[in-house]
DNA sequence: CGTCTAACGGGTCTGAAGTTTCGTTAATGG
DNA sequence: CCATTAACGAAACTTCAGACCCGTTAGACG
């Protein structure tokens, strides 16, 4: 037997998958309720009705478990809406993010995920991948705006989408400011205006 | 004797103050090196050459210590620069933030502070206070821009300053994107353009 | 349907985080 | 300079997260 093989890779079907799902859901609940601090794997095992040995063997640490949870979350994507204008699309995105972060459960979960990522490189990589996928999902609306001539040629779609989210996460994590629909609309508007002005043109400084 | 009195409040001079400083510096080092996870008070006590009993008695938990550290950091403010134009001032601010977050020591420290704040309400409040002070320090440059007519009357100075920092923190914590001078300049430019367009006018939606 | 063994799970052990105790040191006020 | 006691610190104690052992369960493959 070749050791160094991660458990769960040889027989990924049936029970193994079931255990993984149960543990990930339990981890989600625990992170939501307890936050990242004061979280132990034994508690998660109890919630998942699974032996704690299993959790320790397969994930080892809390950050490792969070990294796996992020990968699992990345696999389920939510589709975007299309409104026909850049501002409309960005506003839809901003409100989706705002609603997610405002929701008591989801907001707490995302806080915990981000906190976990600050301490561990692998978890950080998983977080980056998760957001990269989300950003990719929304990027087409900027490309369409470029086709319509709403934003300059060469505008980086990813940067525009990220610019919409940034102020909302800043409120959530750092300033503690109100995270209402007005904040979402402002974030979208600011990003749209900056994009139109060519701030997000790849590689270049300002055009005029 | 009235119990319920926090230790260090009756005789705050001499030794008590010396111990506090030593512990806060040690906590800073530990947070920088180890991150928020895997940080224990006994280690901090060792670094500070102080009995661990003292650390547990005065601060109790890691988050409590971080909250005190934030209050200490808030007391030492760095003065802003003035360039005469809104974009110039915002760019100076953005570059200052960018340099701070890029610095290996400071960047790690801020990550740890923010992570700690996600899990504890008191620490979060301390973090909000810290950033509120920083924002207040820079707000006048927006007010001056309003006097010059660069931005509409009623523009919220705080929101503009926060809009500059937001994308930089988003890179640091969430997307993992490059945090170079170009990113800083873009953040400043986007905020300046949005401010000029009236996005940050208090209470109102878009003007035109 | 039966064999093989990957993966799970209960029980036990251990080391370190955190608490309590009590003696020691040094601010504070007169 | 002395008395008072707040605050510190060393060491013993407690608790529990996380590691380990080994028997049990159930996928994979013929």
From TrEMBL, chains A, B:
Residues 17-77 form the HTH tetR-type domain. It comes from the Bacteria. Pfam families: TetR_C_11, TetR_N. InterPro entries: Homeodomain-like_sf, HTH-type_TetR-like_transc_reg, HTH_TetR, Tet_transcr_reg_TetR-rel_C_sf, TetR_C. Coiled coil: none annotated. Keywords: DNA-binding, Transcription, Transcription regulation. Residues 40-59 bind DNA. PANTHER family: HTH-TYPE TRANSCRIPTIONAL REGULATOR RUTR, TETR-FAMILY TRANSCRIPTIONAL REGULATOR. This is Transcriptional regulator. It comes from Streptomyces lomondensis.
